[in-house]
Amino acid sequence: MNLLFAATELSPYAKTGGLADVLAALPAALRQRGHSVACVLPLFRSIRETLPELRLTDLILSVPLGAGLQSARIWEGRTDRDVRVFLVEKEEFFDRTYLYGPPTGDYTDNASRFFFFSKIVPLLARHIRPTPQILHLHDWHTGLVPAFVRSERLPFRTAFTIHNLAYQGNFWGLDFPLTNLPTAYFSPAGIEFHQHINCLKAAIVFADRLTTVSPRYAEEIQTPEFGCGLSDVLRERRYKLSGILNGADYSRWDPGRDPVLPAPYSASNPAAKQLSKDRLAKQVGWEPFQAPLFCVISRLTEQKGIPLVLDAAGELQKEGGRLVVLGEGDPGLEERVRDLARSFPESVAAQIGFDEAFAHLLMAGSDFLLMPSLFEPCGLTQLYALRYGTLPIARETGGLADTIVPWDAATGLGTGFLFRAPTANSFSEAVRKAKAVYQDPSSLQAMRREAMRQEFSWEQSAESYEEIYRRLIE
Ligand code: ADP
Ligand code: GLC
After folding, report:
1. Which helix (H) or strand (E) holds 414?
2. Could you tell me the distance, in angstroms and rounded to a whole number, from the CA of residue 164 to the centre of ligand 2?
3. Has this prediction a pTM greater than 0.90?
4. pLDDT on residue 132
């Protein structure tokens, strides 16, 4: 099959979260299975600076954007997995420090930036060879593509993956002329949502198939609690919605061959995990210690339950427990995390920022990963944690519920600790269970071994997507 992926992130060239990891892995896995796969992204500054051997094609594509005509030059390159990637060059839109906006908020011209990108995608699809049969689109930035394909009756089938329903690309109705769509599209049956343009809703309505990144989340988003206002719209289209679990990229996340670690370790040879813990302690300015070490590796947002971590800080530090937080995001939460580390320098360390190498060391050196997310479409961090024998303590929601086997008091088995109510109390309860297991080395070893043997391969996910594409083409 001929497939074109369109998105705004691709690891390691442009990344703010798990979307980038998916774009790095899924197209490569499909290519391995014999399909012709290409990706298209905006030529963000970070991509220009990091993707090697970019080549300018002779394609110049022009699309209307409101009253004016806007053009883009198209560059071509290959990812480190040897997947073909097209880059849309538009300096005034994409040659910026951030992908979506600075920490204080979104860029004010995001409607123009991503409507433009969404118009270029189907046009590019008509020019590249082999001609794609399927456009596989990801998150709201490409949400208008299915509407453009529909309104222009283009010969492509569209699959749209929701990585996070909370980000919808909402713009006021006055921006509608920027879409250049027929006015009938600005209606409740189309892309309008409460007098606004809603890019995610556009995708839900007009894409041929919808997927999300775990089966549990596919169910959850059809309820008012998780539907972010769109549960009715989704429920009406449940016939075309399903959940496919993400995989973990074990070529990048494997303690047996992770170049960042002081020594490799694995399920059958776990002892060297301790060396990573010692190295980590040194790196954050502590002496080596024998006590449970909890970590957070995350965007610092409400979604990720960071306030719960802050509220449970006392519980975490009891009996010598320590916490290391790596993350960036909401300035208010960043400040609270910094404050906590300043107040308890002996037991809490914080690194505010995005640091891939430190993420690997922290994953390896910690005993437990905290992920008390209010909602979690899939979550990749817990998949990596499992492979590193770092037991997740997570809320029972979305992909967390689908990938973590909760510790069972009767058998002592499981791969992590789940709790249900989004409260500091119920989170603390799970932390206490984890600490009890930590005090019993043979139980801890048994859980770690089970965790490290879990397998979430991209191969499996790629096969499920393949099935979806095949049905669309038929
Ligand atoms: P989300 O996409 O919602 O942020 P995921 O768990 O799917 O959550 O993916 C997060 C990805 O981003 C993981 O690869 C994780 O290691 C990485 N990550 C998050 N925050 C940081 C950070 N501050 N530094 C380095 N990597 C980070
Ligand atoms: C989103 C979700 C996360 C998921 C990732 C990749 O960022 O928040 O749960 O793992 O996309 O699909």
Report:
1. none
2. 6
3. yes
4. 98
